[in-house]
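Re: weekly structure request thread

Next one in the queue (420 aa):
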Amino acid sequence: MTRSIGSIVILQVLLFFAVKHCTASDTTRVFYIGNSFVYTYDVPAVVQNFANLAGKGLYYEQHTPGGISVADAAQGSSAHWLNPAVFNTLRTGSWDFVVLQDNQGRFVLGHHKFPSLATSKVVEGHIKIRDSMRYYSPCAKMVLFAGWAFQGGYMPYSPTGVGLIDTIAINYAFLNDSMHEVISPIGIAWRRAIAMLPTVNLWGPDSAHQSAAGTYLTGAVIYSTIFRSSPIGLNYTAGLDSAVARTLRTIAWQTVSDSIVTNNLTLVTIPISQIGSTVAVSGTYTSFQWYRNDTLIPGATGAAVTGTNGACYSVTALDSDGCKCRSMPLCYVASTGISPAMPDCAFTVYPNPANDLLHVRVEAAGAHLTVTDINGREIAEHVLNTPETTLNTSAWNAGLYFVTTVSGEQVYKKKVVIHR
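Done, posted below.
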């Protein structure tokens, strides 16, 4: 159950707080700090709706005054790093995550370049807020909002919005060398969506803020980052065309899954692996709770659980500091005796599990691709004239499939689960 406290006024010149309550025994608490790039179309509400459908407890507050940056000198005590309202909320929240969104224009000035310290203390401002978060909520992690900027680019730095997204992503990675927190790869998901859905405009009328579709994709990426749970099967469209919404959810999940190491999500992610007939936790954790296909398994409170072929498993547990962590899902596949003929670093299949779309990337040009089901029946066949292709799997039955590519003497094989 959710309940709003206070009114939500979507005006760039006003500050507002929105609070959601969700009664659950396991509630994730998130504090959003940002500006109109968060409150336009209400990004936190999109994340909340995904969580509600997935049965996950979520409580959030947000501090998102229009036009405010983390540490711009001209904004004085209105800038987030000097604003008492920010630190009062950090002090009282016992937060699990703090999503921090800065003015993305501060990240477009070329690789590893930020505004002068006289103009904006980007790194210092982020670190100050992070340190306060850690002091009052020792288990909390900061989620850095690595997003987008102007659709038409910003000269002389880039003539395109996609070029700005690339620079923003690079500069957030550079910032995180000092932060050691988690990056939510929002802009990278936007870049993929721009390529896959060229008729869907992620930008709004001002070519700076996001459209409803851009908000939806942003919320799906943040949900995937925080919960490490796929939104693909969640039947929530926020008013978008259902096929477009499903593709955006797929892009969000594949982007977060692909970047778990590069975006430092491993800091709060439990490693799990298939060992014989079980799925087991690696590392030192306690107080386990396992989930099958995102549904709690009663009594599954040990370090391992017996796998069922085709089912996807995840776990929550406490680390050595008593902080709750989650795993990414792992889909159990019974042994078939099939293994890659060569190392598969040049062969990528994602997302896995998949629903309606399956992306295959092979570095070798002209590779021949086949997909077979568990009984050896051929489902699809393609010659890959480009490095990456997308397969429509909406008509495939749920179950286990094998994707094979052949290029000369190089043979690659992967197992893929189609999950409905």
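The chain has eight helices and 23 strands. The longest helix spans residues 161-179.
Next request, please.
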